[in-house]
Amino acid sequence: MRNKILIILLVFFLSFCFFVLFKSLESSNIYVPEKKEDRQLAEFVSEDLFTKKKITSNEIFYGSDYYILNIWASWCAPCRKEHPQLMELSKNSSIKLIGLNYKDDPKKAKKFLKNLGNPFSIILVDKSGVLSIEFGGYGIPETFLINKDKKIIRTFIGNLSDDSVRQINSIVK
User: Fold this and answer.
1) Core-most of 20, 31, 153, 154, by most CB within 10 Å?
2) Nearby residues of 28 by Cβ (< 8 Å), 6 or more positions away
C-alpha cells in the first residue's frame, strides 16, 4: 500500500513538473520594443563617464542636425568589432556621436577607449540598463540615428558594418 502511494505521488509530482515546463515554453520573457524608429526620445538624466556630472538630454541633443547614440560596453566583443566604424563616423562633422556605456565597469570602459580611441563627444553611463530599454534597445551593440527634432530615424541592431556607415552617411549627407 505504501509503495502505491509513493508511486502515485511521484507520478503526480512529475506531471506537475511537466505541466510547469510546458507552460513556461509558451510564454516569452524577452522584451522587444514594438516601435524603434520614428519615435520621439523621452527626456532623461544620466551621468557622464569621465566627469560623473549629471547631464540632461536637453544638454546633449543640441547644436547638431544628426546624432548617433551607440549602446556599448567594454566586455562586448561585437562592440570592439564595430569600433573602427564608429571612429570613421566621428570624422563626419554633421554627426554628434553619443556613447551609452551599458552595465560596465567605468575603469574598464575608460581603458577600452584609451586603447581603441574615443569616437564619442560624450559618454553616458547606464549602470542598471534601464536607460537603454527606454531608448528602445534590447541588446548591445545597438545604434540609433537621431535627427535634430530628437526623433529616432534609423536603428542598427548589432555591430555596425561598412555598409551601415555608408547608409548613415547617405542619410546625413
Assistant:
1) 154
2) none
Nearest by Cα to 83 from 171, 126, 143, 144? 143
The enclosing H or E element of 156 equals: strand 151-157
Q: Does an H or E element contain 145, and which?
A: strand 142-147
Q: Which alpha helices (DSSP H) does the chain contain, by range? A: 2-26, 57-60, 77-89, 106-116, 130-135, 162-172
**Neighbouring C-beta atoms of residue 86, cutoff 10 Å:** 24
Q: Say how far apart CA 74 and CA 65 lie, in whole Å.
A: 28
Residue 55 has pLDDT above 80, yes or no: yes
Rounded to two decimals, the pTM is 0.78
Q: What's the angle, vertex CA 106, arms to CA 103 and CA 110, rounded to 5?
A: 120
Residue with cell 515546463: 21
The residue ranges of every structural domain in the chain are 39-172
Does the domain formed by 39-172 have CATH 3.40.30.10?
yes
pLDDT of residue 36: 56
Q: How confident is the model at residue 39 (pLDDT cuts 50, 70, 90)?
A: confident
Distance CA 55, CA 60 (A): 7
The reply to whether omega before 78 is within 30° of 0 (cis) is: no
